Amino acid sequence: LVICGTYYTSKDVNEVEVHKDNLICIDHSGTISRTLSPDDKKYLALLNEAREKDRLIKLQANQYLLPGFIDLHVHAPQWPQAGLALDLPLSDWLNHYTFPLEARFTDKGYARRVYHDFIHELLSQGTTTALMFGTIHNDANLELARQAVNYGLRAFVGQVVMDNPDQTPTYYRNQTSAAALRDTEKFIQEILELRKNTSATVMPVITPRFVPSCTDKALLGLGQLAHQYDLPIQSHLSESNWEHEYAIKRFGMHDTAVMDRFHLLTDKSVMAHGTQLTAADLTTVRQRGTTIAHCPLSNIYFGNGVLPTKKLLRLGNRVGLGSDISGGYSPSLYHNIRQAVKSSQMLTDGVDSSQPVEQRGVTGSRITMANAFYLATVGGAKALHLKTGQIVPGFQADFQIVNGHQRLMELSSADIFQRLMYQTEQQDIQSVYVAGKRVYGKD
Ligand code: GUN
Ligand code: FE
């Protein structure tokens, strides 16, 4: 397959490169084998050969190729309640909406319907990889993994563990710590089997819901399983004041130290939110190589604060971007990219100089659109140790083709990038590819 068109890709955290009218060659395994610019000697020959063999996808003048996005934190079973009850505090939202909904996934038929719809939704939003929470139910989680394989989403699926009777309802909890660990190991083996049989791009993920919902026994066992099977780990970390205080009360330390004590912070760990992390917590997280999934939409409702993204990047902490459906209401990473930029502006609070004016914000907190785009692509890929998120040879051919909006003025390539980030909606996404295979298309 050869794609001919203009593409954007991160060069580094601060810079996005544009490549105009390039040829992007994709090999049989779904990897980008080479990219050629129009001044390359072989350009015309390759273009003609691809056209003759009917292997050419030629983008129209207003179309652009972007890497597929990586959603680093999303709850697939919460899709039916996206946009509901966001005015409640986190613990009420969990107990009155989220837990009752997730409990319904004992019903495999319901799971199939929801996950079928949701995987399609993610792809249609330009998301090609997702690190997902499932529920505590083996069968439903397996269904989620199967739907992802069927539709071609690169999927990391977590069997949720929540066994602490103090913080979980009777109708939705693992009955014992031992049962929770057994279910997790069973799920790991089922997914590893699925991978064998389908060359599928699906991975099991160790998933303690968050510190309050887990017993010490479960946390200890999950840390051991993660190391035994060398698996990614996901959870929520320092999301709300309530959760933060809870860890201090129960353990006499922050939840970062708790996670660390149970060996749950590794370079394959992704911790969502982190709005309440202290300098010492950030150091621990950084030293372990753990990634923070920034969920800017969700944090407005449940984060009790703004993640100081710029500070994390400056410190060298790893950061990616998550929709956190349904703490966030939108599965679109475009919406989250915009919110990441907007939230950082508000953290700055309009004061970004050394002027001694009344200063409620933090100087130098702004992130750029290039920074936010990096989080949604490279940041996520690094967290999951994947060669995706960039359009360069040797990387996976995970793309989205986007229709740009026509306007009555000429725009530079840099301006077109800004406009794409600010104005792309679901209906503007023409088609989506994972490993060179078309997994979504409008036509
Ligand atoms: N903390 C524990 N569970 C959840 C969840 O489902 N969503 C969010 N945002 N925070 C959580
Ligand atoms: Fe979450």
From TrEMBL:
Pathway stated in the Swiss-Prot or TrEMBL entry: Purine metabolism; guanine degradation; xanthine from guanine: step 1/1
Record text on cofactor binding: Binds 1 zinc ion per subunit.
Keywords associated with the record: Hydrolase, Metal-binding, Zinc
Domain Amidohydrolase-related: 64-439
GO molecular function, one term: guanine deaminase activity
EC primary class: hydrolase
Cofactor names: Zn(2+)
Keyword Metal-binding among record annotations: yes
Source organism, top-level taxon: Bacteria
Database matches in Gene3D superfamilies: Metal-dependent hydrolases, Urease, subunit C, domain 1
One Pfam family per UniProt: Amidohydro_1
UniProt EC number: 3.5.4.3
Catalytic reactions on record: guanine + H2O + H(+) = xanthine + NH4(+)
Protein's UniProt keywords contain Hydrolase: yes
Protein family according to the UniProt entry: Belongs to the metallo-dependent hydrolases superfamily. ATZ/TRZ family.
Role played: Catalyzes the hydrolytic deamination of guanine, producing xanthine and ammonia.
Protein name: Guanine deaminase
Organism: Limosilactobacillus avistercoris
